[in-house]
Amino acid sequence: MHSIPLALNDGTEADFGRFAGKTVLVVNVASACGFTRQYDGLQALYTRFQDRGFEILGVPCNQFGAQESGSDAEIEDFCRKNFGVTFALAAKTDVNGEDQHPLYAALIGSGDPIRWNFEKFLVGPDGAVIARYASDVEPESEDLLAAIEAALV
Known about the structure:
single chain, alpha/beta, 5-stranded mixed β-sheet, two-stranded antiparallel ribbon, 7 strands, 20% strand, globular
């Protein structure tokens, strides 16, 4: 998992290895979705746990109702201005289908495709997927908080 290439929203090329040794919540995000308000909860999680080896990777995706139609720069501006987002954002990408990003192929494995915006994957420090959460699971839900706490090193 850590060798999977990753383009960040600011144009930086990296790989998922930048998160090696950390617990990561990977979330496919969109700016015009009913779940967009979850950015507040995601930022609160990041603020709460970042000093304990926790990261969030927001992955903008326009595959669900064309709810992320902006450019990478517009998406970053929207997230920073409206929600104070300071966690990492990937470049806009596909999470399903023929052009599915390799990160999502690894996250999903043989499981079901992503169903909607704001699905969440909790990835352990070793790069293994710990859990998957549906779009309607709030970032600060008891189940997700407990899983994050248990996974932190």
